[in-house]
Every structure is written in structure tokens, then in C-alpha cells.
């Protein structure tokens, strides 16, 4: 066991993701490393906008693999997620082959014999030709492996979860007419959830469970640095400090990383030299998405700015 | 090391993290990939593979820190000084080197434990404690009362018997060394005690909690001490969560084997009535409809807190609940319970309706005038109260009319059956019109009563 150098490989994951513009915390990198090593899906939970979907994209870009995305919603079923028979094609083929069928069966003296002959042709109409692969099946058929992103699994119905179990644990699906399709190369599966409803234990058991929360101040500064390169260091520190102060309030929707990045872009666009009272008040609607939240934050703006700049001086 | 992992899994279960064997296998596989060298990575690995919710992650993190933080063997600080003094004393008494070698010979005659203690070899001692602990199966510890037993067992395993003999011999031959040994032994006892306490925290937590909850579930609600109220609330919330998990399943169930002829024909009209698609009869379940009427007067003040808490959780389980609270007059409190957190809601209800003297007759007539039409033949009416109406007119006739309109009336009374009918209790008069009358004094009875009510709609 002494020859294993996990910290080095985890750092490799970290720098690999960083090269794609995704600044991962140590925990995220460990999860990605482990998912690859023991071939398990990752279930990522966390508030909206902390980069759950982004993580899957970054992994795909880093490994140079195709990303297949399945967006979940209420009422999603296997016909849309897994596979579907191409009914129209089947119908068309039967019409075209009608005459051929007559020829084939022409020699049969009785109905029984005709039936037996038909059996011999097997399930021509239920073959791979007529299957329309949907995201899950596509992911299994990629020869070079892929990143399969099952986005917002909590939006789907509880039955859909059960459908996923076979894929998640064995990387295979069973199509009744065809048999079992096993993955050519095991895909890296990322599931994301906003915890809108509790997922089943069976699903959770099959996954590594990663919770991405709001990042620490240092990390968030690095994220902003990598995503919005044009921003000055002082402004970056001030704005991240300000956002961390806002997150201490009791708001309907706390600003997350995506809002931080948007705000940084806006501040750069407005060419704000530093975080001023006026600028913040004018752009607060980028950060907060509810009128009530903006009203709750407005009176605190000055104190927060002062705190953030003080932190900047001493920290 | 595998042994250690297994112990850790057990400790994690003790900390309230649900671990299935499959998950522990995953964790083992993951650990074999990352190794034991880096503790933070190991911690992250366990958090990723074992804990599946935010709460579990926190519990497991704490457990990890506790588990891998072994107590250091204690050594009395003045011990080193005493040793020096001892040495200088012996040196000054006789400068010959033969004397010190004589001392060594004496030490050779001692048992292993005594030698270890005199040598102050921390690593060896802690290793010995760990060995003795696993020999005494310390991870089986469950209750705090077992601390003494396990400490004793571990010390015995380490050879306390022999040490005592040595100590007796030494007191006669070499009192200074005997004193050193006694000091060291005290240190050892302290360390062992600490090891056992830590093990109790690791392995016994869940058991202790279960025991406490079990006692609490069977304790009368009216006699709960203030310091237990918070725990009791926690317990009731757990009960509510269990109810919700059990009964929030879909209400339609396909019944195979009974063909629904009408629907089948209609569905297959497109094929000229040839039944390609079949439709099966379904069993419809009634949606639970509940009206809860809760007494919040002074006489049941201590219990009504929990009643309200349970009604609050009922609002989460069942869609169609309307709740009312009364002492002298009756008011509807559904909106308060639906929109606010349990604590806020209870405070508001108590300030609006609570702490008066109860008047069942008046409250029932308030109900009849205001909300009688809310009762349908599918409704279950739950009355929570002690039926002590301060000798005012009980108006049992209204309860009769309520019973006639509703599916059933369930009366939950916090008093024991013995007290019904005594003093101003009108229970016998009311109970004639109730479908079910139950005593409901403990959390367990409360859970069973509510569970029965919800189950009757399944």
C-alpha cells in the first residue's frame, strides 16, 4: 500500500480541471479521482449555481471525452431517456416487405407451417436497427467512454430513479426484446440534485455522495480570477468579501458562485475601480433575484462594503 | 488495518450514520486506492463513500476525528524529576557502578507491565492498551454503566495481577521504585479510563440515545420535565417523519385480475372494439380528510403543546386537514399551522386561544355554527382533550350530530380511564358518540393513535 501516492494523482485531477477553468476544492478532486478509480457515479448535491453541471463539463473537456446530457423533468420516462422503437420505420418496412413476405410464406400449406416459418425469421423487426437510442443508451454505446450528466435528478419522478439503478451499478441496461446492453467502456456518470426532494436510498447507495456548498473566500477569489481575468485584485477581494457578508443574511435565495461571476463581469464592464456604495446599489439586482432580498440587503450595503474593504487591508 | 476499518464502521453506525455492507465494501475499495498516508484524503474518502446526507457527513466527520485521535498515554509530570532525584540519590550514596546494575537486575525480576511502566515507553504502553482493549472486546461497550467493568478487564488483560505482586515485593525491597511504580500505575489507570470513555462515546452513543428515547416515549406527557421538552419535541418530529414516510405513497393501486369492461371498450373503440389494450379495475382509496379539534385550556396545557406539535406534523402528512383550537371559544388554526414553524405556530395559537378555562359546550356550538359544513362522510374528526368542562353544559348533542355527519369521531384523552367520569369529566357522556376513545398520555400512544387514523385511509 506504500507505493500508492494518492495525493499526487488528486493534485493532477485538480490541475487538470483548473486547466479547463474549473477551480475544484480538494474534496471535489478526491471525488473525481475516486469515481474514476472505483468506477462509481458521483451524486452532486448543493444549492443552485455552485457549479454542479459545470463540473461534468470540465471533466469531459479535461479528459477529451464526449459529454452526454440528460436533463430530468417531471414525467421523463424510459422512451425519452433510454431507448424507443422506431415505430414509423417498422411500419414502413412491413409495408415494403409485404410482397416479400407473401413469397416467403407462399410455399406453406397450412397456417401452422406459415407461422413456424415466420418464427424462423426471428425478430427482424425488433433488432438494433429499429432502436432509437436515447441519452442513457447512447452513453453506453460510446466506444471511447464518455461523461454522462444526469442533470437535476430530483426533478424526475421516483419511478425514474429505479430505472437508473441498473445503469448506475452495472453500467448496463436491459431491453426486453434485445437482451442486455453492456457498456463498451464504463462512462463517468455525474448526477446532480438541488435536494428538491429526498432521493431514494437505493440510488444514494450506488453513488459517491459529494456536497458542494458555497466555496471559501480564498477559493472563490481563485474562481473569479480564472473566470473573469480582467478584474483587478483589490476589486476581486472586495466583491468576494461583500458576497460572503451577504450570505450571512437570511435571504430567500443566497447568491451563489454563478452570481458572483456574473457580478464580477458586470463590475468589469462598468469599469468600477473599487466597490463603491453607488455601484453596489445599482448592480445589486445581478446578485439577488428577489425583490424582498434586495430590500433586506439594501440597508446593510454600507456596513458590508466597509467590512469587506477592512478585511482587504488586514487579511 | 482491515480490523481497524471494521471498528471504524461500527463506530460510524454508533454515531447514527446508516451504513450498509455494500457501502462499507465501497469504502474499503476506495481506501485501497487512496491508502492511509494522508489523513485528510482518507477523511474525504469516507465522507464521499459512506455519508449520504449533509447531517450524516457532519456526524461521520466528527466520528472520524474522534476515532483517529487516540488518547496519549499519560505520564505524571513529576515522575521524571523523581527519577532524576532517585538516580542522583543513589549515585551520591554509593559511587560504584555495580549498584546501578544491581538495580537493573531487580527490574529484570519484575513482570512485563512493571518493566514497561518503569521504562516509560509511551509507544509500547499505548500499543499494550490497544491490544488489551481489543482482547477485552472494548467495541462491545454500550452503556455508561459498563465503564468500570471494561476498565477492569483491560487492566487485567495487561497483567495487573502480576504488577500487584511486584509492587508488594518492591515495597519490601525497594520502596523508592515501588513509589515510582505506583505513580506510573495511577497514570496508566487514567489512560485506560480515558480510552474506555472514548470508546463509549464512539460505540455507545446510538444505544444510549435509543434507551433514552425509549424511556421518553413511554413517559407521561404531562409529567415531562422542562429539560426534556426539547428532546420530546425532537422525538415527536421523528414520529411525524415516520408517519410521513409511511403514508405519503400514491393513493391509486392497480388491481390485476378484474377487467374494467367499460373502460376497455372505450379505449379500444379505434380498433372497432377489438380489445388490444385492456384496462383493469382500480381500487380507489379515500383521501384522508381530517378535522382536528384541540383543547388548549389550562388543565391540559402541558400536553397540548405536544398535541399541537403532532397536528402540525399531520398537516405535513395529509393534504386535507383543518384544525381548531379552543379553551372558552373555538378558532380555526389551520393557516397558522400551515404557514409557520412549529414553535411560532404554537406560541401564536396559545396566545390566541390558550390558557382559559375550558368550555366544551360553548366551543362545540361555535364549531357547529361556523364549520359544521366542513364535515363530509369521509371525514375523521379527532378531538384532543380531557373532557373536563368545568360543570358547564357539555352539549353532547352537538357531538352526536358531528358523529352522524362524519366517517368517525376519535377522542384522544390524556387522562387515564380511571379518571373518566370523576369530578367534572364528561367523558362517559361524550364517549357514547365516539367511534374510538383512547387514552393518549405518552408519545408512544400518540403515535399509535395517529398512525391508526391515517392507516384507515390506505
Walk me through the topology.
The complex is a heterodimer of chains A (315) and B (458).
Chain A: H1 6-19, H2 26-38, E1 42-45, H3 52-63, E2 66-71, H4 78-81, E3 83-85, H5 87-96, H6 98-106, H7 111-120, E4 131-133, H8 135-141, E5 146-151, H9 158-170, E6 172-175, E7 179-182, E8 188-193, H10 201-205, E9 208-211, H11 217-227, H12 233-246, H13 257-269, H14 277-287, H15 291-297, H16 301-314
Parallel strand pairs in A: 1-8, 1-9, 2-5, 5-8
Antiparallel strand pairs in A: 3-4, 6-7
Helix pairs in contact in A: 1-2, 11-12, 11-13, 12-16, 13-14
Chain B: H1 2-14, H2 21-34, H3 39-49, H4 54-67, H5 78-93, H6 97-108, H7 112-119, H8 122-135, H9 147-158, H10 160-173, H11 175-203, H12 205-217, H13 226-247, E1 252-259, H14 261-267, E2 280-284, E3 289-295, H15 301-317, E4 320-326, E5 330-332, H16 334-339, H17 342-353, H18 360-371, E6 379-384, H19 396-405, E7 408-413, H20 427-431, E8 436-439, H21 443-455
Parallel strand pairs in B: 3-4, 3-6, 6-7, 7-8
Antiparallel strand pairs in B: 1-2, 4-5
Can you characterise this structure?
- The complex is a heterodimer of chains A (315) and B (458).
- Chain A has 16 helices and 9 strands.
- A 5-stranded parallel beta sheet of chain A has the order 2-5-8-1-9, sandwiched between helices.
- In chain A, strand 6 and strand 7 form a beta hairpin.
- Chain B is of the alpha/beta class and 458 residues long.
- Chain B is built from 21 helices and 8 strands.
- The interface between A and B is medium-sized, with 23 and 25 residues.
